[in-house]
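Re: Re: token formats

Sure, here are both.
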Amino acid sequence: MAQPKLGTNDMVSLPALLRKNASSFGSSAAFREKEFGIWQTWSWTKALEEAEYFALGLIELGIKPGDFVAILGRNRPDLYIAMISIQMTGATPVPQYQDSVADEMEYVLAHCGAKFVIAGDQEQVDKILEIQSKLPDFKQMIYLDGRGLRKYDHSKLHSFASIMENGKNSGSSTRTTLSEREGALDYDSTCVMLYTSGTTGKPKGVVLSNANIIETAKTTCQFDDLKQSDEILAYLPMAWIGDFIFSVGQAMWSGFCVNCPESADTLSNDLREIGPTYYFAPPRVFEMQLTNVMIRMEDSGRFKKWLFDYFMDHARHVGADILDGKSVGVASRIKYFLGELMVYGPLKNTLGFSKVRVGYTAGEAIGPEIFEFYRSLGINLKQLYGQTEASVYITQQPDGEVRGDTVGVPTPGVEVRIGDNGEVYYKSPGTFVEYYKNPESTADTKDPEGWVATGDAGFFEEDTGHLRIIDRAKDVAKMSDGSMFAPKYVENKLKFYPNILEAVVFGAGKERCVAFVNIDLSAVGNWAERNNIAYSSYQELAGHPKVLETIQSHVEEVNASIAKDKMLAGCQIHRFLVLHKELDADDGELTRTRKVRRKIIADKFEDLINALYDGSTSIYTETEVTYEDGRKGQISATLQIKDATTNNVAAIAAQ
């Protein structure tokens, strides 16, 4: 088929960038996937060839410009390539969370009117078949992994390989159609539609153009000097804007290789084997990795644990300064070098971070202690602040200006201002086009001049120009005495402890703060085994007196830390309870990106909140839960309510 000429003005779509990469470094690795324990590689030339064949096959199947195509499944090169193919045809990819239940998918697919679905495996196919009758626009489904599907009705079901083969054997008319459609793409063409997590309501379809994605990718690749020789591990949900900008936008712009793990179970091993130079993870991933490290240290011998504690204490004092190129004494550098040989280096290798040149975290605020732990190892972990509507980037931290309590300076090309009410506003080349079929929300979020309301409260530091995010604007409130209430700040401090998986703090309009806590079953379970404490369930372990005692000590340590911050000292936790179940996205308590749905939790557990405030020492409760197979059930428990010691701010300041 005819190849468009390449020039700087032609780089206006992802297919054009794919062609540029195939032309510039065709034999280099574009994608890798581990399958049956062996890494399979797609060169840029092969990726382009498969993208064309699949696009031709889609046209043969009846796809039209403007159609929406849902993508369901784990991170796989075929699905990333399929998204490029979809855009080649003039249609729009709509990636979905692979762990979404059928009912959640029903809303999104019906809302966008998806006519085609590309499903990774039988599990995803079954979800669509369950809701097929409720999707009036649905026409055809394509599956990648055919295991278990041989006896299914294939009247609207096609294998990925068959679509590829049909495209390969298509005639000149189809090829001409594809060339015309791809040639019609420009900067204003829709690149992708991604749905928000729906923290406060129904998810909204965020329409992002080629200009949004490509300009953002171009600017941010230049900011961190990302290049063709870099490697990234693609393991985050494909429906999340972070994965799309890193694994598609930036990969297509810079030409670096996108590596897909074999499964969630092999992720740690695959991460070590690849050794990415560019790495992103939300705070929860870093929290889990730190928890696993601490568990292993608790299980290690006395000398090994002493060695770890000794050198990590030194790293906390000088590691970040050495990383940032600051002045550090010769003796401290020598000691750090020895720590690198005996502790830091082996630990980074175990985590898969030995080659990380640029690392980022975002999505939620990360606890400063967790952030500093990784930087003390010499890992160039930085923070960025963004959202789906911005094509991710609003602010990010330049090398040498990295701190745990800020999210950096505005990304080049992005303007940021603080509203009179403390809310953060921005406008940038990455600003979304609209919320699909929702002009009211679009107008509420983006004004005629292009300024977007983030919904977050923050301020710029006068001396550094760095942005500090306090919390979600709707969550930042006043306590009854007028002091500031910022729950996320406290929750992040609590989650630094390996024993605590999640925390939810309440206190708006009240005279004191209270909290729910989820224990981390792996960390606390490991502790229980070491101490010969028998338990049969999460609920039993969560209510164990020694567990409650340990959580109380963590809460009181956090209270002492919070008391040192005059602005937020009123957020100390007076009473808490350990929940009898883990907060779960299937139960509606978390989003699919594991953000707390605070209002839903408050409504669902209103009886528990009331007990925390009315002086009760225990409360009996019954809760509906959703099991892995979709069945509903009831669990009941009598929860113990604990008091925590708080601190006088004036006394702390005087110390």
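Second one below.
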Amino acid sequence: MIEHENQRKKTVYIIGHKNPDTDSICSALAYADIKSRTEDNIFIPKRAGHINEETQFVLQRFGIKPPALMTDVGTQVKDIEIRRTEGVDSGISLKKAWEIMREKNVVTLAITSENEQLEGLITIGDIATSYMDVYDSRILATARTKYRNIIETIGGTMVIGNEHSYFMRGKVLVAAANPDMMENYIEEDDLVILGNRYESQLCAIEMKAGCIIVCEGASVSNTIKKLAQERSCTIISTPHDTFTVARLIYQSMPIKYFMRSDHLITFQTESFIEDIREIMAKKRHRDFPILDENGCYVGMISRRNLLNMGRKNVILVDHNEKSQAVDGIDGAQILEIIDHHRIGTLETMSPVYFRNQPLGCTATIMYKIYEEHNLEIPPKIAGILCAAILSDTLMYRSPTCTQTDREAAEHLAQIAGIDVEGFSGEMFRAGSNLKNKTAEEIFLQDFKKFSANDVSFGVGQINVMRDEDLKELKQRIKEYLPEAYQKQNVQMLFFMLTNILEERTELLCVGANASKLIEETFEVSAYDGVYRLKGVVSRKKQLVPALVEAMQQ
């Protein structure tokens, strides 16, 4: 009952921007808590990138598990309807496979091992071809057909022999002639289809036939049984006539002899639809097998499944720029956007709930939503929201900080039982401890892309408490910047090394006209390739708006 109810619920992923900061992660966690307590769907917080040192400290401090990584929200195979047709054993007969296909109304069966590994495929076309193209009377032996398959196919019973044994040598023939002529064409190990004539049964056994099939329900004498036992000849009895048995017996062959096992086209449950659509279009297969992450068979999909595929439902927090959004956002269904930045470049297929407030932090908006719903804020959630506000506002020093942010942080600190100043110092020190990080990891720790007036640019930022922390970082980033410029595919690149306590930034830049843009915008000159910007600590409210305005003039 619970499982059935969950199937009706919609899964919604709540996710922040790439290279997430503390606000992005903590707001996703908090909003998932709010939505789970106010709506009857499944809300899952996710992250679009690696968690930085500061955020790790915050989550560990309050004992909260980090959201799982989700680098792409495009539609995956697991998001569409997979036909859960069970795999079959390679030893079943063609007739049994045909019956399963008719029962399940499918045209393809997957052949799997005991541990659900895919061994091959057989289609209705393969079965038809096998039936129409059989001219070799020894194919039943070549296919190593189990006697149990033969019995099942012709509706027979085992009189003498072991149904688990295999017919592996000899040809199949119908004994329509008298015994004198039978001696001329029955060979050792043959399978002989015959009637109720005692003489014919005896002749076949004496000619060392491997199996005789007695048709039309004819009785088998004790003498024949005894002789067959002595000569290791299998006897099967069937109610059908010889014509029917001769027509049916080739349907007893195991499907493994006809299945396709080489160059199979399979997809993973985690495969993205955009990656497999072209392959499916080029190959005229009706069905494609799906495997899970362990390589086990799951089911089938067809091109028809792509017509009704659903998109992932997402709520975006702390951003509304397409360049900052998780990969695959164009293929997702955006339900809501909760943000505190300038209106960006994201477009949606349908109207969405869009809440954008001029506050210093998205976490402050989360605090207000808790209040609006009269929801009690759990101490752990209060702790991470307070940390997010302190981080984004640089402990109230950023020009983005409002009185609302300050009041929210102070109240959240009371709920979480933390001292704002002492906790902030610990958090910022944890965030500036980057000794074990590569230059690339430091650069990407808080990096965002923007565009204005057909110009693309990126801005990274690191906040530190002391000038000593800046010296080594500055040199490492300065050396790495040309490489970053090549990788990020933007026209200009900027990196802010911000001293929180001194409230100033040392700015590095690279790219066409980047230096000229900074010099004209802030009326400063570089010293050893570094621009010193006094009073500039906010990327959102001070650096990016100034650059955008200069580009538009």
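The longest strand covers residues 455-464. Residues 216 and 241 are 5 Å apart (CA to CA).
- S.
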